[in-house]
Amino acid sequence: xxxxxxxxxxxxxxxxxxxxxxxxxxxxxxxxxxxxxxxxxxxxxxxxxxxxxxxxxxxxxxxxxxxxxxxxxxxxxxxxxxxxxxxxxxxxxxxxxxxxxxxxxxxxxxxxxxxxxxxxxxxxxxxxxxxxxxxxxxxxxxxxxxxxxxxxxxxxxxxxxxxxxxxxxxxxxxxxxxxxxxxxxxxxxxxxxxxxxxxxxxxxxxxxxx
Amino acid sequence: xxxxxxxxxxxxxxxxxxxxxxxxxxxxxxxxxxxxxxxxxxxxxxxxxxxxxxxxxxxxxxxxxxxxxxxxxxxxxxxxxxxxxxxxxxxxxxxxxxxxxxxxxxxxxxxxxxxxxxxxxxxxxxxxxxxxxxxxxxxxxxxxxxxxxxxxxxxxxxxxxxxxxxxxxxxxxxxxxxxxxxxxxxxxxxxxxxxxxxxxxxxxxxxxxxxxxxxxxxxxxxxxxxxxxxxxxxxxxxxxxxxxxxxxxxxxxxxxxxxxxxxxxxxxxxxxxxxxxxxxxxxxxxxxxxxxxxxxxxxxxxxxxxxxxxxxxxxxxxxxxxxxxxxxxxxxxxxxxxxxxxxxxxxxxxxxxxxxxxxxxxxxxxxxxxxxxxxxxxxxxxxxxxxxxxxxxxxxxxxxxxxxxxxxxxxxxxxxxxxxxxxxxxxxxxxxxxxxxxxxxxxxxxxxxxxxxxxxxxxxxxxxxxxxxxxxxxxxxxxxxxxxxxxxxxxxxxxxxxxxxxxxxxxxxxxxxxxxxxxxxxxxxxxxxxxxxxxx
Lengths: 210, 536
Description:
Radius of gyration of chain B: 24 Å
Order of helices and strands of chain A: HEEEEEEEEEEH
Shape of chain B: globular
Radius of gyration of chain A: 27 Å
Helix content of chain B: 55-70%
Oligomer: heterodimer
Helix content of chain A: 10-25%
Distance between the termini of chain B: 24 Å
Largest sheet of chain B: none
Order of helices and strands of chain B: HHHHHHHHHHHHHHHHHHHHHHHHH
């Protein structure tokens, strides 16, 4: 009982020292960001409906919008390119919910790359990560300021996230070796039970005859 | 008794030493000493007239009582690990199989629904074939379903496999049945509480074990979507190993294995239809069904949703959420035995009425803390609420199985089965109502579930035993109906009583006098030892 009390107390202590997101003095909101980047994301294989994770490539480009004011990009030093879920992949999946508070937003969990910002247009041929789940996506680029917070963004889709989306098919995670091992273990389980039943029945019949 | 000529005058030794147990109904001298040809009938612990152990030594492995206890709870523990193995890995699985919240919720419902039927079947299997086979079937026939997680590719397959794995929760019934036939009524609350609690711990251990195994497999080089499938081989393999141990080391009854005893005529085979009828006819069975649905039922639901809840709401890492979720299940180690012990203690002071009050108090307190858990918005408060909730609910489970063995002697297995099934039914119902739709957030679902549980605990006030009373009513004052023998022999027809088939129930009735409150027990029946001299 003493051990359990100690474990319980240490759990409470441990959990109260887990950081909650009260560290930032100012909360970064998506609606406060400037849409000053122009981003495109196009699959390299032409005429393909569903891309394969780990195999297909997407060509991503980003640059300052021509309509932006001259010094708009002075504030950001690095860019973060992220893979985001389209609304159709968020339906009935509250763990992918979009949130205005960027620290609580779960719609862009997959980081593609983080690069220092040159003032020139940049591009990247990205092979879709093998661990990318099945879904429909678009690409968003955040401009990160000196203090590590987002100041601007751009995305390959429109504001409603309905255009220029691409679908990815994740890997299945299955393998023939697994299937075979599974069947072998199952047969072993059944077989052992059967052997015991037969043995015991024989023993009981022998006893009865005695 | 080789030279026994039944019935001839002068051969019966009954009554010579004046230390023999005196029964209200006359019994044959030959049936008194159950000497079995089975060489396993030797006892390492003090036993009562039914050869059930009178003391509980958790650290011992004495044949057959303590061995049955350990094999029973370990089987049940393993099955809990398998049934809830998916829960801590859901964040990975939902991405691999492209599941929605509805898919995840439905699979959770399915994981506990299969056991509704298998627990009923197990009750009958135990009554008719013995606890050993029941346990072994459950473990070894469901192990292939655990391995078959490697074949799953979408929500339908996932649901089907979780449904089939869930069948193994029937080991709960065989475990409780096994301990109920091996241990005396005075300590049955504590023993059942330990067996049930340590088994239920599996639901907590799995939340720690599976993420750890997953991590190790990932470090070995597998992708996440393959690693979780490989991780499932661990619980499957454990099931096979424990199944073999049960078959080789276990024994059905204190005097031997059921088939041996049945063949030598010492234990009569009962008819399933009779066993079933007397279980179903007894209204107390159904009240226990509902009660267990809202103690064990909500515990099973929490095992499925709590890890994901902490992962999503408080942004914890997979392993951290697993640790927090595990604490819920691990509390079973002391909480459920504590419930059983409290029930036994209450019985010593107030008899069965004390047991019923303890049950109501624990279950209601647990439900109230569940409501608080849903309301908590900071992590430390949520953990505190969760721990208090776990202790209350799990103690209630232990207390309930301090009452269940007394509801019937003839249909003990089936009643354990029906009550156990109630647990799963409650879990399926609460998951379906509160955690399978996007209508409520998980937090609101938790609070609503707690409110429903508090409400559905009220029926315990209606459980009444004529010989012992109920929460608000005294025992019957009628001379006939206030005897334990009347209650337990009413499960047998006159014809069966004439054949003497009810003798086991009479012995049980004698031993169950302990459920009278202390005041009443001291008032009547001086024990033979004090009443008569040792020498004639």
